[in-house]
Design brief:
- With about 350 residues, the protein is α/β, with parallel strands linked by helices.
- The chain has helices at about 5-15, 15-35, 75-85, 100-120, 135-140, 155-160, 170-180, 200-210, 235-255, 265-270, 275-280, 290-295, 310-325, 340-350; strands spanning about 40, 45-50, 90-95, 125, 145-150, 185-190, 190, 215-220, 220, 260, 285, 330.
- Strands 2-3-4-5-6-8-10 form a 7-stranded parallel sheet. A 3-stranded parallel sheet has the order 11-1-12, with helices on one face.
- The longest helix has 19 residues, at about 15-35.
- The protein is globular.
- It binds 5'-deoxyadenosine.
- 5'-deoxyadenosine binds near residues 58, 220 and 265.
């Protein structure tokens, strides 16, 4: 891990134009030197948009009555996993709104069981929010090995401005620690350029990731959703894109061997945004494998792209684009976080 100060990060975040492009090239070279030029593909299955939380920025927040709610059955989740396997992917991400009721968690455990039974070598990442430690253990026993839980912001006071009670910053940190303790590869992330956020907050977010010693990161620019309380706040999309890309490049510089996703939100702000993320040092892309009919309902923010109906075609076009960038699409490779492999090895030799 490279040490860096908060003011140094702020200066890097401000880079634009030629200096910014050179910075991204340096970050890309760091990726190549530390974890090769492989780009891993994860099949993204957004299996339910029902959510018990009321985050002030999010389109699927509980109070939004303007969206159709859906939840896929275990068989439907399995069918999406089958499609990902048929497209040659060895890794999927199951994501949904947050629910802690037993119906939800047992339904998910059962889905994991079905997937692992049929595709024993499939690597499964979960992103289903805050859960009790015992539930995380159950998911791990059923074969999920990676977990993404975004902290959204590392500043507790900023967190409070984005999340109503009873959500709590410390609870989320506790969950991240539990996940690591259980043995998951742990990922977190923040929304970039969200309301009330400062550059110093973003610099602190990077330092927070290093302190937590994360294995993976998924962060993307905030994009307003018209049915949320924060939608009226002034929004500069170009600034969001630039900051989103610079955050990737800074993180790659300070944590050279973690997996960093180039997220859909980048693509929403600019066609080709996902490629720019890869050129800034990201190494993971998550093509959509949710049933086409439900994609518009997983509307976290306005204009979220739905991807291409035929998942396999989309995977092929993503692969081509990765090659055009001079990078290597690696579908067969499960893409375990190199950082995770190293830290587990260090722990066991202690
Ligand atoms: N803009 C960008 N990202 C968002 N998310 C939720 N709402 C938005 C938004 N308006 C992200 C959050 C959350 C993930 C599911 O989606 O970071 O963790």
């Amino acid at each position: 891990m490279t040490s860096i100060s908060r003011p140094e990060i702020v200066e890097l975040l401000k880079l634009r134009g030629k200096e910014q492009r050179e910075f991204h090239k340096r970050a890309s070279a760091i990726r190549k030197d530390n974890i090769t030029d492989k780009v891993y593909l994860r099949g993204l299955i957004e299996f339910s948009n029902i959510c018990a939380n009321d985050c002030l920025y999010c389109g699927i927040r509980k109070s939004n009555i303007n969206i159709r709610r859906y939840g896929l059955s275990p068989d439907e989740i399995l069918a999406s996993a089958d499609e990902a396997a048929e497209a040659g992917l060895t890794s999927i991400l199951l994501q949904s709104g947050e629910r802690r009721d037993r119906d939800f968690t047992s339904h998910l455990s059962y889905s994991l069981k079905l997937i692992k039974h049929k595709h024993p070598r499939m690597n499964i990442t979960l992103s289903v929010g805050e859960q009790e430690r015992g539930i995380y253990e159950e998911f791990y026993e059923q074969g999920a090995t990676r977990y993404l839980l975004r902290i959204e912001t590392s500043s507790e006071s900023h967190y409070r401005k984005l999340h109503p009670e009873p959500m709590s910053f410390s609870r989320r940190v506790q969950c991240l620690n539990d996940l690591r303790d259980i043995g998951f590869q742990v990922g977190t992330g923040v929304m970039v350029n969200s309301p009330y956020q400062t550059l110093a907050n973003l610099a602190d977010d990077i330092l927070f990731f290093t302190t937590l010693d994360i294995d993976m990161c998924g962060m993307g620019p905030y994009i307003p959703h018209s049915d949320t309380p924060l939608s009226g706040i002034e929004y500069l999309s170009e600034e969001s894109l630039n900051l989103g890309l610079n955050m990737i490049a800074v993180l790659r510089t300070v944590m050279p061997d973690i997996n960093i996703a180039s997220t859909t939100a980048l693509e929403t702000l600019s066609p080709g945004g996902r490629e720019l993320g890869l050129l800034a040092g990201a190494n993971v892309i998550m093509p959509q494998f949710s049933p086409f009919a439900s994609r518009t309902d997983y509307a976290l923010y306005d204009n979220k792209p739905q991807g291409v109906r035929e998942c396999r075609d989309f995977v092929n076009s993503v692969k081509e684009r990765i090659e055009e960038l001079g990078l290597v699409p690696a579908t067969e490779d499960p893409g375990i976080s190199m950082h995770f492999l190293r830290r587990v090895k260090d722990d066991s030799s202690r």
